[in-house]
Amino acid sequence: MAEPMQVEVVSADQVVWSGESTNIIAKTVEGDIGILAGHSPVLAVLVPSAVEIVTPDGVREIVAVDGGFMSVAQGRVSILSEYARMAGEISLSAAERELAEAQARLDAGEDDDETRQHFVRASAQVKAAQKAG
Hints:
With 133 residues, the protein is of the alpha+beta class. It is 27% helix and 45% strand.
């Protein structure tokens, strides 16, 4: 079996998660991608979703991302997103309220960057909280 990968999830202002992983599942613009130890190099564009990271002891870490990039090379995986948050820090009910609020603003014609960003982040939070729950 290949050595575990070193993984780092980084948001605009902090390292959200760092550690070893044997398996990562992420949603890209081309669909879901699974990364195992020893994976060939890849650069992927992420969509707002929940990234699943499995540690060597079998723990599933779920991270909400609002898009970004994933780089795999030489046993290292970097997940870079403007916004990233651990699912355990997210309240599903609060995230669902935020998503409904953002959807209502979009439905009312508030189609500006801030409203779209709010919708995307709330959507990612809901997905992560559901996946972790």
